[in-house]
Amino acid sequence: MDYNTPQQDVKSDLNTSAKNVVNGTEQDFRGLHESNNQEIRPETPLTHFHSFFYDLVTWKYPRASGLIFISLLSTILAFRFVNVMRYVFKAAYLLLGSVAALEYAGKHLGYKGVVSQMRPRRYYTIPRENIESIFEEIHDFLNFVVVEFQRVVFVENLFTTVARHSQLKAFVASFFGYFLIKYLPFWSLAFLGTILGFTGPYVYINNQEQIDAQINHYSDIANMKLNEARGVTEQYAGEYATRARQTASQLSEKVQSYTNRRISGEQLRHKLNPHDFPNAPTQEPVSPPQYQEHRAPILA
């Protein structure tokens, strides 16, 4: 008869839990990698990245999404607060220096070499199939970026739900990014964007009805205000158009009256005949004769 101690039972339970976690994580990553969504129109060239990122940010596979989320945040913080390249070069010179020192010491001690004895008969190479699969993944990812960019630019999803409202999300992200980049460094924007990218869709999916109701409510208010503003604008535009027509009519009448008077003057001038008037004198005028006044003599 086997008797298990409490320590053994706890150890067995921990091993079982660890195996379950590992198996569940492997299944989540496998499901995330094999994501395939056919809800978008069939004429659009799709790749599995469309469903991959959707399942990733909506936490369809929680373990895989959680690990990727923590890994991204850790990588951003590591590159911000740790000089990663310095440690990379440090690891490189320690590795190369160690193997060189071991090989040198082994040959001087009479051995063929410590490191050279560990050398494989055939060096490891990367199979062609792996390279082709990597380039295929890169090709699919680039197509995903190009297709999503075109769908946003050409406003494919303007009147769809906010969960797939790429136009609205891209506009909000670029708008706030334009102002925040003036005050925040790039790493903090990347950190904040990662948090929002992984939490925003999850919050929306779990509260979709309430959020859609609020969005529809505010959309109705905005449409009502827009209609009111359009009505007021049309009213003022009609008034100004009427005034403009009246002013144009008055100006047209004044111009027509002035034109008629000018035409009448021209016609009158052409009707006058120069022979109807006397000829102008051509000689100097002759002064009239002067007469001397004869006075009677005065008698003494």
UniProtKB/TrEMBL annotation:
Membrane-crossing segments per the record: 64-82, 184-205
Keywords (A to Z) from UniProt: Endoplasmic reticulum, Membrane, Transmembrane, Transmembrane helix
Every Reticulon domain range: 53-256
Topology with respect to the bilayer: Multi-pass membrane protein
Chain spans, region Disordered: 271-300
Entry GO CC: endoplasmic reticulum membrane
Domain of life, source organism: Eukaryota
The UniProt record lists the keyword Transmembrane: yes
Keyword field contains Endoplasmic reticulum: yes
Pfam families assigned to the protein according to its UniProt record, in alphabetical order: Reticulon
InterPro entries recorded: Reticulon (IPR003388)
Record PROSITE patterns: RETICULON
Subcellular location: Endoplasmic reticulum membrane
Protein name: Reticulon-like protein
Gene source species: Terfezia boudieri ATCC MYA-4762
